[in-house]
# Entry
Amino acid sequence: MSFVSRHFTPSSTNGWIKTACAGLIPILIGLTYNLVPRYLPGTMVLLQLLFVIVPVVQLLLWFFIGKNIVSKLPHPIWGWLVQNWLGILSLLLFIWQFGLIPEQARNGAIAIFCQQFSAGLSLITYFIGTAFQSDILDVGFTEALIMQVSGLIFMLVSSLLGVAIPRMSAASAARRAEKEKAHRAEIRAKAQGTYSAGKKK
# Structure
């Protein structure tokens, strides 16, 4: 049996496709997070509520995608990387656009796209990126890069927990079942030994 036929059955292929497409979700959340305050202005309380809720929703959503889809793939670690492929790509594009080429050579679409994957986590990553800045409003390339890296790390950890917890739970249940099976076998052996000793008497 070939590698493809072993690991890419119709059901698992569907899971891989779902996992790869899930990478678009943080991008869409990031775009919404950035566009809503600009085009649908509301009260300050509503905007503050949005800034607080979005990071929680994004991390929880990423966790549950890892738990319910990625953990069921034949190779969940590869699935974990596929789930985060757009985040990894976004970080590389960010470094290229803002760190390796001059400002006049930047591609506007790419420059915007590469910042969206972790944009929903800005409430958290902003304070991490500016933690050692005397002026938190002065965000340069280094601070922005720290924000991008920390955002990706949050997403990676969130999805990794989603992948790992079901696996650890299954392994723990299997160990308990083995211990219970061994315990019952021991009880049966003792009972049979007692019965045999009684017959000899």
